[in-house]
Amino acid sequence: MIVIQHTSHTVFQENTYLIIDNKKALVIDPGDDPGMLIKKIESEKCTVQAVMATHGHIDHIFAAKPLCEQYDCPFIMNSTDREWLKEMEKLSLNFGLPYYGTPVIDIDIADKQELKTGDFSFHIIHTPGHSQGSVCFLFDKKLFSGDTLFYHSVGRCDLPGGDGKVLRKSVREKLFNLPDETTVYPGHMAETTIKEEKTNNPFLQ
């Protein structure tokens, strides 16, 4: 399985991930101009089977609707964060960004711990704290952590639905139980490992 990281050109500097296996693909947290993401996908000559979001904040779902329409594929998200979808148009205006439409949740993972979509199977780890509906996606020893866990940091907790104590509990009790060698692909900044964060993350000591 190949993981391709694309950092957005917006003010958010968010990481979108393209996961490719045998020319089939998933898009996780599409946070950049849809035209740029489509160009990247087309350059890889792969077929997108689903678009997924670790949570409902605009920087992680910015291009979800046009990508789902382009590739006729489902949008996967935890409906606990559904209220954020209602704010997309307003937030786009507030940040001076184009509004590309609001995605509709086709596959709700609010009560799911694992999922098979297309040719992919993965685990869903519910990690509230950054938002109430935050999740991480685990593919073997590859963890897509959204804004729950960063390199030597964690996601902000001052937005509606955020809770620092809950976030730290999510990381310590759920993510830190994963194998040390698990690679962490965060929503912002560089990749890291579970061992590195257990040992050196100052927010979790």
Question: What percentage of the residues does DSSP assign to strands (E)?
Answer: 25-35%
Widest sheet: strand ordering? 1-2-3-4-5-6
Order of helices and strands: EEEHEHHEHHEEEEEEEHEEH
Low-confidence stretches: none
Q: Based on helices, strands and strand pairing, what is the structural class? A: alpha/beta
Please give the largest β-sheet. 6 strands, mixed
Helix coverage percent: 10-25%
Q: What does this 3D model show about the protein?
A:
A hairpin with an 8-residue loop joins strand 8 and strand 9. By secondary structure, the chain is an alpha/beta fold. It has seven helices and 14 strands. The relative contact order is 0.14. The termini are far apart. It is globular and about 45 Å long.
